[in-house]
Amino acid sequence: MGHKSSFRSKRVCGSNQVMRKIGLLSVVVPCHNEAEVLPATHERLGRILGNLVSSGRISNYELVYVDNGSTDNTLSVLENIFSSDRYARVIALRRDFGFQGSISAGLFYAQGDAVVTIDADLQDPPEKIEEMLAHYGQGYDLVLGVRSDRSTDSFIKRFFSENYYRLMRLMGVSVVYNHGDFRLMSRSL
User: Fold this and answer.
1) Count of structural domains within the chain
2) Whether the predicted pLDDT of 48 surpasses 60
3) Considering the domain boundaries, does residue 17 fall inside one?
4) From CA 129, how far away is CA 116, in angstroms rounded?
């Protein structure tokens, strides 16, 4: 499932707090026609987050799934997950508001002290959430998952990505190279 890419956490901005603990961690998972991958995604995220609770890294968690107007049976799969897992929450958007729209909806409803956003197809390894939490604990308010290997991306995706970053550099815009939507954010942001 997903791409076999390696990641590293990128610490972007910090706060004055040191060794912060997370009471509730929210994980926002935008979904659009993801019915096929959702059971495995949910199982993997639940296992990882459960281990983080058991180890004391976090006190509790919630999985906030956002169905972005899917036309397959994504919503039905999410309703089954919701009915069987007290940690799951489901937000159903009436139509496709785009990827960023579904992330925004999830962030609006997330209740955690910190929020992780991750794709439903797990292109990003959720095992890296623990590393992100370590950076958060050191006082960083935003931790980005940065892709260190794009070899699994299609040629066209790599082409547009490279040219996007090239254009940003030419315009003098400072951006973190190869970061996506896999990130941890403090509630304060």
Assistant:
1) 1
2) yes
3) yes
4) 8
